[in-house]
Amino acid sequence: MIRMVNVKKLNGELQEYDPAKLRVSLKRAGADDKHIDNILSDVNKILYDGVTTRKLFKFVFSQLKKCDPKTSCKYDLKNAIMRLGPEGFAFEEYIGYLFKHLGYKTDLNQFARGQFISHEIDVIAEKGNERLMVECKHHKEAWMGTSIQIALYVYARFLDVKKEFSAPVLATNTQFSGQVMKYAKGVGLRLLGWRDPKGSNLALYVEKFKLYPVTMLDTLSKEDLKNLLRNKIILVETLAAKSEAEVVKVLGISRQKAKKVHDQAVALCPSCKLS
Prior knowledge:
- This protein is of the alpha/beta class.
- The chain has 13 helices and eight strands.
- The protein has three domains: 6-75; 82-209, Trna Endonuclease, Chain: A, domain 1 (3-Layer(aba) Sandwich), CATH 3.40.1350; 214-272, DNA polymerase, domain 1 (Orthogonal Bundle), CATH 1.10.150.
- It is globular and about 60 Å long.
């Protein structure tokens, strides 16, 4: 029988442990029922009142990695996107790729002339009669939501350049507060968050288009990741589409390590492998 315990969230709040939510998150990552049942059983053995969500996640991730390495990468997806920082430019590139998959033509870090001043726009996305002003806000911690101040700032910038754009978009890798959601609906500010809005959010699009960031790959060192991001290689699909020799050249690593990196990339994005 599962003991009733509270889990301490990253923001310090306590929340009752819910095995059903953990089951859903593991299922969403692609874990099979047998592995999920075993992991939930193991989790029950280490639970105690006040255990942190970070500790719980690390334990579940390690257990999943033992039995299903490929799925463990997907289970770590949200954290992998957080690791695209801290500079932020990689997240802008990432959002640019997402809009391309949605059928938009994109330009990054371009200046738009406003009524009073010029503004540098993170992503300009165009499709048909739409020309979107997309502003990106990357967070490196899950508990850091996008505040109303950011929403007000983005919309204020849009008001100055509205002759150039059809609508503003605020994109983030975490969540929006209720206040932001209400304000955005009122003024026509489009939102793109981790699970907001329902039916058209970042988590949904990542899985739909297999937009896996290279930060998911545990075969890469921190220095390897820096090299990839420096060379604007953001997506796993880009590595999967390269040959092992190209991976050696890009990262300056051994052929043996390049094979491990390439194999893991292909496992996540098999359709991108060179024929």
